Amino acid sequence: MKKYENISFCDVDLKDGFWLKRYLLNKNVSLESVKNRFEETARFDALRFNYLKNGRKPHFFYDSDVAKWIEAVAYIMEKDRDSMRENEKFIDSLIDCMANAQRDDGYLNSTVQQICPDKIFKDRGNHELYCAGHLIEAAVAYDKVTGKHKFLDVMEKYCDCIYRAFISEKTADFITPGHEEIELALLKLYRYTGKKKYFEMARFFLENRGKHDEQYVYDGNRYGTQDDTDIYHLKEAVGHSVRALYLYSGVADLCAETGDPKLLSALTSVFDDIVNGKMYITGGVGSTFRTESFTVPYDLPNNTAYSESCCAIAFILFALRMRKIDFNAKYGHLIERVMYNSLLSSTDLSGKAFFYENPLEIALEEYGREIAVPESRKERLPITQRLEVFGCSCCPPNINRFFAELGDVIAFSDGDTLFIDQYVSSAVNSPLGRAEIVENYALDGKAQISSQNYVGKKLAVRLPEWSEKLVATSDGKPVKFEVKEGYAYFETGKSFSLQLDFGIKASFVAANPKVRADAGRIALTYGPVVYCLEGVDNGARLNRISVSADSAANAELVKDFHGLYSITTDGFIDKDNSALYFPVSESVKEPKRLKFIPYFAFANRGESDMLVWVRKA
Amino acid sequence: MKKYENISFCDVDLKDGFWLKRYLLNKNVSLESVKNRFEETARFDALRFNYLKNGRKPHFFYDSDVAKWIEAVAYIMEKDRDSMRENEKFIDSLIDCMANAQRDDGYLNSTVQQICPDKIFKDRGNHELYCAGHLIEAAVAYDKVTGKHKFLDVMEKYCDCIYRAFISEKTADFITPGHEEIELALLKLYRYTGKKKYFEMARFFLENRGKHDEQYVYDGNRYGTQDDTDIYHLKEAVGHSVRALYLYSGVADLCAETGDPKLLSALTSVFDDIVNGKMYITGGVGSTFRTESFTVPYDLPNNTAYSESCCAIAFILFALRMRKIDFNAKYGHLIERVMYNSLLSSTDLSGKAFFYENPLEIALEEYGREIAVPESRKERLPITQRLEVFGCSCCPPNINRFFAELGDVIAFSDGDTLFIDQYVSSAVNSPLGRAEIVENYALDGKAQISSQNYVGKKLAVRLPEWSEKLVATSDGKPVKFEVKEGYAYFETGKSFSLQLDFGIKASFVAANPKVRADAGRIALTYGPVVYCLEGVDNGARLNRISVSADSAANAELVKDFHGLYSITTDGFIDKDNSALYFPVSESVKEPKRLKFIPYFAFANRGESDMLVWVRKA
Fold it and tell me: Whole-angstrom distance between the N-terminal and C-terminal Cα of chain A?
């Protein structure tokens, strides 16, 4: 099995552009916003182990919340350690608390130790190994950037404890964790330390999964926590979608280590199952809030879409790992789709507030419909405005750490070829030389890629799914390229400068006819960006609106929305009628100019109806 | 306030035709099916008061289930006592049990007496007065047809007990019942016995409603049980829809007695609120299963429609009462709509099984979507096949008693005019003479109305909502008529024979653009009958199908479905595509011949997708 070298963010410098803005928003605003909310909600206190003193009860996932935030800070430190000096001190002090609180046997979990010390590794649902996984990831990142080993030492000691409890002494009451995450963390730790033991531990948790049915039936159901099958027989994406994607990411890491073709085949089957039937057009996944899970192919309700922000991140993590072991443009396509849509929608334009769920429709009338139903029993619908913190606030720090490692997704290399997967303005310091990407991709569909010191022979650029034709030039002259497996290959010399024009335009997309929720509907896209209608621009009850696919040809782009294009097109609105039912002949639709905005920017101007899939006129 | 004389079923003989078939199906099959299931499920045993002997625990609504069945038998006895001799004995024996079990103070409730005798009138949610109401209705009907007074005596003794507990001594722990029904029952008892006390009791329960807020907050909500407003200020239909419609029926009865214009105005406001925004095209009401309630105008989801069978009946009961105090064709329109659609759909074609909910869409894929969700937490959707009995089996005996009193809806008289509201083959023995109706209305849109001994001066026939033009003839010659307020008025002599042709045809109907669930969709109707697509005829995933409104012009009617028309039209089906999302230009719809069947007949050929509102091509 062949592997492809990912150019990590360590070797990438973001340059001015769409994504640097978001990187900086995360660094300068979101990170601090999450920190403040976590302080207010006693999440840091949890790891200060001062519950007895302040009485603010920690929750089973608090350690993981803090860990993700630390990991985010560590990644930012890699690029700009000075800006994080205060956070570094803050983290050092948390690490001291953790080290002090760690039990002699190495065990470390703020909730179990402070709330229910008799429950160590007794309850599979207690998120202990999930928290451990995130702490390990944070420790590796922090160790790497600071050279200070205390955190990693603590975590290695904890890993020894875990090893004894689950592998050598088997004192734990369960075999695999209820919420996956430690698997990919242990493989990361293995790669960082070189210690084979961590690889063994990861393999243990991965290979035991789906093999102990009787223990892991969740209310009559083995799918919820991916206990339905072992990793070598994975075929479909099932169960809690974040857990599933963390599992698949861990399996992909294992596959990268072992090169087992059976695992690769299982993983591609799962990946294809998602992108061919279980993914929203925004790249979001998870079609039901009930156990936050994958459902069946083509089941993609828009108003009750779960599409958790953590899923957007986890799906990118999975795709990125797949790209390293399976050369295919589909992974880059997916990452682009998620990044510009379900990932970006997770954060408001100010950077302070976040969505947990990212629905594709908001019909405010639905929120007030059940007037005679007690609050506690009303239909559950996604919230309509982003919040700064949640009771279960897994997404905000996950968003922090994703943006902090954003540069990971851009480039790969293989032999004499540098692959550009994502068009993000940056300098990529690859083994084949330094390449510069200058782009305004989401606005003009173009990118310039150049190098002065290239030692490779070819440059391959991913052809976006939405692009009908690539026009490549150099100094204004057409350049030839060969299209192979979704990439355009260019022969290069030591220095080159290529102008790529992917022919961006507004166009409407249809969904598979089996998708009931999207039947007879179309979605406006502009390159990688999915657009939506909002009530604030188009009036309430957006399902009265219809649009012809042809209208895209006359779409007008206006850069009026935070430097982004809004798109106006001709559409229609059904004329009001006083009757509840009437002959179709009395049904009238009137012309209406429609204003679309990027989906990711919805819900930034107060509560409003929103609709991605608009009725086709 | 003027009143209109309803020709009761006592004075109507059904004749061979569509509705007699259904009347006989109820009499010969449904009644027995319900009886058998009720025996099996210990419902009759409840009223035999032998829980201690057989250990089969009665439920709070068992008395009402049995009462409705007895009432049905009594109505059938009015027409054919001989056929019910066995049931009469059966009922007499039940009455003996009730008389024996009745407490000295008159109290009678099989559940409270046997399960929790300390709870008499302690808990508003225990359905005691609801059960009493249905028993009173049954007792009146049984007394009237048999002349045997034991049952009525028992109930009058119980009424004395209720009077003391709620009015004179006020020992009850609540003021008005949680589930309305006793109000209209007491008014029926008042009319039957002439005893003013029952009128006072009814008025007490009606006029105290909505006046005791603090007591009647249901989980933070006063709407659920119509405790939000008093009856003189009713404006909108709210809360549990069956309870609401029973309440409105009781209020209409009160209004008929008092002639209070404020009540009439409140009632018309409520009626209009329903038919203008809260009613499915089938006449079904109740848009959410959560507290089985009305929601807000235009909120009419199809796949999760509650549209309880009891609501269909209760809505007819309400409309019929309104028609007696408010001359308006809309009440007849509503009754027709309900009868041919949401009422008929409640029963399968064999007469044995019943729907509790009557959805307007079944998408089987939705039922299996949440594979990773434990059974207990899956999304709740209506059942897809009728059942012979339910845990809460209020609908089947309600259906029994409605069909048994079916003839009530046909005609009214006022002064010198006989009004024909419903076209049902029958002989109507009105104060103005005997009129015969011969029709095949649902198949040909025609009816013949004749009389040989008419002493009135005019005949008025309701012009159906769906009819664009009435052609009236006598002996093949055109007859003149005057159209006024939705009725066609004919001058008559002592004998007449009118042929009415309402111009039935297949045509598509649209819904108000505010109805989100029906946006861009149309429903096929044929006269009073709403049609639907079923998967068994058209393949699964019916939302792939679209149809042009024009196609109705070329619709082909085939009498191939239990003597009913199926309607075939030209339509389209979206062509399958392997991609999940693709440019609209790749979207292809192919011609497909569509087969529609009457909505009420859906789910008679096994589990199948079903769709009323089809995408407009």
Answer: 49
Inter-chain residue contact A372 with B294, CB threshold 8 Å: yes
Per-residue model confidence as pLDDT tens digits over A252-295 = 999 999 999 999 999 999 999 999 999 999 999 999 999 899 99
CB atoms within 10 A of CB A376: 8
Rounded distance, CA B184 to CA B181, Å?
A: 6
Q: Provide the 3-class DSSP secondary structure of residue A577.
A: coil
Joined together, the tokens standing for residue B222 give 């006063």
Q: What is the pLDDT of residues B141-156, one digit of tens each?
A: 999 999 999 999 999 9
A501: which strand partners?
A446, A471
- Bridge pairing between strands A506-511 and A521-526: antiparallel
Q: Tell which residue, B398, B317, B321, B413, has the closest CA to residue B354.
A: B398
Q: Which residues contact B506 (CB under 8 A, 6 or more apart)?
A: B524, B525, B526, B531, B552, B555, B557, B567, B569
CB B213 within 8 A of CB B227: yes
According to DSSP, residue A345 is labeled G
pLDDT band (50, 70, 90) for residue A447: very high
Q: What is the DSSP letter of B437?
A: E
State the SS3 of B166-193: HHHCCCCCCCCCCCCCHHHHHHHHHHHH
Distance from CA of B277 to the nearest CA of A (A): 6
Rounded Cα–Cα distance for residues A190 and A193 (Å) = 5
List Cα–Cα distances, B446 to A591, B166, B168, B487, B556, in angstroms.
41, 52, 56, 16, 19
Closest Cα in chain B, distance from residue A276 (Å): 5
Is residue B443 within 8 Å of residue B475, measured between CB atoms? no
Residue with tokens 């790529």: A500
A286/A306 Cα distance (integer angstroms): 5
CA triplet B43, B346, B318: central angle to 5 degrees? 90
- SS3 for B478? strand
What's the complex ipTM?
A: 0.96
Contact between B602 and B508 (Cβ < 8 Å) = no
Chain-centroid distance of CA B333 in Å reads 14
Nearest 5°: the CA angle A413, A414, A415 is 125
Work out the end-to-end distance of chain B between its first and last CA atoms, rounded to an integer number of angstroms.
Answer: 49
Whole-number Å distance between alpha carbons of A202 and B481: 88
The whole-angstrom distance between residue A559's C-alpha and the CA centroid of its chain comes to: 27
CATH class of domain segment(s) A411-501: mainly beta
In whole angstroms, give the CA distance from residue A456 to residue A492: 8
The alpha-carbon gap from B577 to the nearest alpha carbon of chain A, in Å, equals 6
Residues in chain B closer than 8 A to A245 (CB atoms): none
Average pLDDT of the residues in A155-159:
98
Quick one: CA torsion of B450, B451, B456, B460, rounded to 10 degrees? -10
Domain limits, CATH 2.60.40.1180, in chain A? 411-501
Phi-psi region of A17 (alpha: psi -120 to 50; beta: other; left: phi over 0): left
Between chains, do B520 and A546 touch, taking CB under 8 Å as contact? yes
Cα–Cα distance between B333 and B339 in angstroms, integer?
10
Give the nearest partner residue to B519 out of A277, A291, A543, using CB atoms. Answer: A543
Query: Which 3 state secondary structure label does DSSP give B550?
Result: helix
Structure tokens belonging to residue B368: 């299996």
